[in-house]
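Lab channel / #folding
Pinned by the channel admin:
"Please post every new chain as: sequence first, then the C-alpha cells as a reply. Keep commentary short and put observations after the output so the thread stays searchable."

First post following the new format, from NK:
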Amino acid sequence: MTHDPDRLPVTGDGPGAGDVPVAGRGTGDEAPPIRGMSMNEARALYERMTEFRTFEELVGEGVRDGLIHGEMHLAIGQEAVAAGLEPHLAPGDAVVSTHRAHLHALMAGVDPVPLLGEIFERDGGLCGGKGGHMHLFDPSRDFMCTGIVGASAPLALGYALQRRRLATGSLSVAAMGDGAVNHGTFAESLNLAALWRLPVLFLIEDNGYAISVQRASSTAGDPARRGDAYGIPTWRCDGTDPEAVGAVTGEAVARIRQGAGPSIVIATVSRFRGHYEGDLDHYRSDEERDRMRAEQDPLIIWRARLLASGVAAVDLDDPAQAARGRVAEWVAQARAMPWPEPAAARQGVFA
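Reply from TO:
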C-alpha cells in the first residue's frame, strides 16, 4: 500500500526527521497562537506536562539519592506525546510500554502513588516492590511495561486480540522507541495486526537514538514507511507539540475504533537525558544538548504558544506550581511506604 502525502501528515521535525518542515514551533515572539482547542484545554495540557516533568525529575533525584536501583530511563523532553494522546484513550484501553514507561503509566490512568511505590521499591507498590521501574504492572488499568526492546508490540497484540474477539470497542497501545522498529518482533506484529485487523496503535517515540547509536547508523530507509508493506497507515507528528500529537493520534485512534485495523503514529521527540541516569552521554555534543533544551522543550514551546494566544503568565504559573506540589506529595507518600518484608521474597514464586 503506497500512501499519498496526505496519508502521512508531517507536522514537525526532530532528531533524524530529515527535511520535514516545521509546524507549530516557536519559543519567542514568533510562537504561533493556539487555534485547535479551547484555552482551558490548552492550559490543562501545560499543567499536565508540568506534572509529567516534575514526576520524572523527582524520580531522578531518587536515583541520585540511592533510593532507586538499576538503570533508570527518564522521558524528560517527551512529555507532549503522552499529554497529546491521553484525551483519546478510554476506559478499557490497554497500554504496553517500554523501559521508559512512567509517563505512559500516568497517561493510562495508573494511580501515581502505588506507581511511585513500585519505583521506590516499597511494599505498597504496584507489584509489592518486586518488579521495580522496568516491570510495572497494573491489571486494573491494563497497563504493563517491559525492559525488552521491541517486546511491547507482541504483548499489545494480545490485548488487542482479546478486545477484538469480545467486541469491546477498546484498543491497545504498543509504545516503543525508534530503535525498536528494527527488531523482528515489530515486523511480525505489524503482519499479524494487519492480517487480523487488530485494534492496536503502534506509538513510536522517535528521539533519533537507539541507546547511543544515531538512527543514520542503525536504520535503513524511513521508519514511517514500514507499515506500507502491510497496508497500515502511518502518521508522523511533532512530538514536542501536544496539539499536533493530539490531532494525529485522534485520527489514528478513531480509525482503529471504527474497525479499520491498526495504525502507526511516529512522534519526533528529544531525549534530554542520557539513555539512563548516569549515562555519560558522550555520543552527543554539548552544542547538540544545549540546542535541544533551548529549541525542543515541549514545556517552553507550549508556554510560548499560550502566551502568544493571550493567556496571562500567572494563569500558567499557579496551576504549574500546584502540579509540582501534587507530585511532591505523591513522592512523599511513596517514600513513606514500608520496605517489603524479607519473607515476601518467597511469595508468588512457583517451582
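NK: The chain has one domain: 5-211+233-280+297-335.
TO: also worth noting, Residues 39-64 form the longest helix (26 residues).
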